[in-house]
Design brief:
The protein is of the alpha/beta class. The chain contains 15 helices and 17 strands. The chain has a seven-stranded mixed sheet. A four-stranded mixed sheet has the order 1-2-3-15. The protein is globular, with a radius of gyration of 22 Å. The relative contact order is 0.15. The protein binds pyridoxal-5'-phosphate. Pyridoxal-5'-phosphate (PLP) binds next to helix 7.
Length: 435
């Protein structure tokens, strides 16, 4: 390979610095211009390869440009398949719905209807909230500390992060915030608190239309809800006439091994929101799954111009066909999830628990470095060494690994070696090791 001399940063990023709004965010952590991507790797314009443990924030569970999906898309485009279909009946949507029914819903005995909202996660959440309010005639929603549900106003009301909330510039109402599992330490069962508030007529908490919950809080810093806690919350919601909305936008589509993250807890949510990896190819697509009995929408009540992203339907169908007709992907996620877990625990255990601890579930795991500053230095060091990995959590203190589900064990180890080296070099020299 021809090694090029380092470009002048001012020239390298000139158009971005001049023309792109300050609102850009991820680009700031990884200051290079990317050109190509394949599998678990991103390639900068100068040819430098990076292992990608960010993967579009879990939008690319099958890796970059998975060949089976790419082939289906190329065929479809070459045949002049419809690109933009509003919500007209079309063959791409038909094939997706068939595959989704046969491969995902029917084997799990989930009797959902599928709503195609606008193509973002936030839009799916907006639709879910509206529908829950419409069905119940109630306006209050229960959401949890550190929850992330998107940044449009309705979804943002459910999002915990103060920085994102402040950007609304207006009151974000209609939501009661309650502590997520573990928020008050392991001695306090926060589901009992929820139960107490909802059964006490003087608690000051209005009867909720819905409880919206993530089984693992992705943006919130990899907080994992216990299975028993989830079941309890579901039962409390049901007892109180509130719908259970599981936001599976980041944690769904196999991130925790099963297709839906809530399968392990045996939940049957009234409404499920999906986006990110549902198209499988990084194309915009979102779904709201609605219990058939609860499909009270009137035609067009929640609409949007881009509800028919046919290219996304094509790749989503191909992904289900290729990866979900058998159990092998879920089984490999289980295996690699365990590998990731033991490796991250090993890394964390080199340090005092007040400095580092491993957390997460499935292939959505990371290390809480207890300091946003340290975590920031770690990801920037990792980037210099060829690994793209981001932070999450209230102080951006958790380094969050979201490798593609299809990653080989060699590449997984390689990425973790880089991460370990980065952590060692940032904190290793400055703290007492536990060993
Ligand atoms: C990313 C995300 C959203 C918002 O999705 P967008 O496509 O960014 O609007 C909502 N909920 C969860 C859990 C997410 O991770």
């Amino acid at each position: 390979m021809i090694v090029q001399s380092a470009p002048d940063p001012e020239e390298e990023f000139a158009i971005f610095n001049h023309l792109e709004s300050e609102v850009r965010s991820y680009a700031r952590s990884f200051p290079v211009v990317f050109a190509r991507a394949r599998g678990a790797q991103l390639f900068a314009r100068d040819g430098t390869a990076y292992l990608d443990f960010l993967m579009g924030c879990s939008s690319l569970n099958y890796g970059h440009n998975p060949p089976e999906l790419k082939a289906a898309l190329i065929d479809y485009i070459a045949g002049d398949g419809i690109t933009h279909g509003l919500d007209l009946y079309n063959e791409a949507k038909e094939s997706f719905l068939r595959e989704f029914h046969e491969t995902i819903l029917r084997p799990r005995q989930l009797d959902y209807v599928v709503q195609f909202p606008g193509p973002t996660g936030a839009n799916a959440v907006e639709a879910a909230l509206k529908l829950a309010r419409k069905i119940t005639g109630r306006s209050n929603i229960i959401a949890f500390t550190s929850g992330f549900h998107g940044v449009s106003l309705g979804a943002l009301s459910c999002t915990g992060n103060r920085y994102h909330r402040a950007a609304a510039g207006q009151l974000l109402g209609g939501v009661t915030r309650l502590p997520y599992d573990g928020y008050l330490g392991s001695a306090v069962d926060t589901a009992d608190y929820l139960d107490h508030l909802l059964s006490d007529p003087s608690s000051g908490v209005d009867a909720p239309a819905a409880v919206i919950v993530e089984t693992v809080q992705g943006e919130g810093g990899l907080n994992v809800a216990g299975m028993a806690w989830l079941r309890k919350v579901a039962a409390i919601a049901q007892r109180n006439g509130a719908l259970l909305i599981v936001d599976d936008i980041q944690v769904g589509v196999g991130r925790t091994d099963a297709f839906f993250s809530f399968e392990a807890a045996g939940l049957r949510p009234d409404i499920v929101t999906m986006a990110k990896s549902i198209s499988g190819y990084g194309l915009p697509m979102a779904l709201v799954l609605i219990d058939r009995q609860l499909d009270r929408w009137e035609p067009g009540e929640h609409n949007g111009t881009f509800r028919g992203n046919c290219h996304a339907f094509v790749t989503a169908r191909a992904a289900l066909e290729h990866f979900w007709r058998t159990d092998s992907l879920a089984a490999s996620v289980r295996e690699k999830g365990n590998l990731l877990k033991s490796r991250l625990e090993q890394i964390a255990q080199k340090y005092d628990p007040s400095r580092a601890s491993a957390k997460g579930r499935g292939m959505m795991r990371g290390i809480d470095l207890k300091s946003g500053e340290i975590a920031g230095q770690v990801i920037s060091t990792a980037f210099q060494r060829g690994l793209i990995v981001e932070t999450a959590g209230p102080y951006d203190e958790v380094v969050k690994c979201l490798p593609p589900l299809v990653i080989g064990e060699d590449q997984l180890s390689q990425g973790l070696d880089i991460l370990e080296g980065a952590i060692d070099s940032v904190i290793g020299s400055t703290v007492n090791t536990a060993a």
